[in-house]
């Protein structure tokens, strides 16, 4: 068995420029928002699930836009 050949193949797979996961679609964001449980404590952003659900398309569009921005920049924004 040629071990060196196997290692070279693995390195090639690891170092590709192709993203490991595709970008999130607006539809996927919609599905996740629908699954968020209501009447729970807010996270660090102090935004309750009911507000996100009530915001309809406007808030969900903003969430999707920010996810794509973070994905493209590969960097999380700083907390305010």
Quick tags:
80 residues, single chain, mainly alpha
Outline:
By secondary structure, the chain is mostly helical. 57% of the residues lie in helices and 0% in strands.
Any chance you could write out the topology, listing elements then pairs?
Elements: H1 3-14, H2 26-35, H3 49-54, H4 56-73
Helix pairs in contact: 2-4
What's the number of helices? 4
Q: Please tell me what the overall shape is.
A: globular
Instruction: Indicate the low-confidence ranges by residue numbers.
Output: none
Distance between the termini: 55 Å
- How much of the sequence lies in strands comes to under 5%
The tally of domains stands at 1
Query: What is the H/E string?
Result: HHHH
| Class of secondary structure makeup | mainly alpha
State mean pLDDT (0 to 100 scale): 75
Helix content: 55-70%
Characterize the main sheet. none
| Total strand segments | 0
Radius of gyration: 19 Å
Structure description:
- The chain has helices at residues 3-14, 26-35, 49-54, 56-73.
- It is mainly alpha-helical.
- The chain has one domain (22-80).
């Amino acid at each position: 068995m040629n071990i060196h050949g196997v290692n070279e193949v693995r390195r090639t797979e690891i170092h590709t420029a192709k993203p490991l996961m595709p970008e999130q679609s607006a539809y996927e964001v919609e599905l996740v928002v629908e699954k968020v449980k209501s009447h729970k404590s807010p996270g660090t952003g102090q935004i309750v699930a009911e507000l996100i659900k009530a915001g309809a398309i406007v808030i969900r569009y903003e969430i999707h836009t920010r996810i794509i921005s973070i994905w493209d920049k590969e960097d999380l924004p700083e907390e305010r």
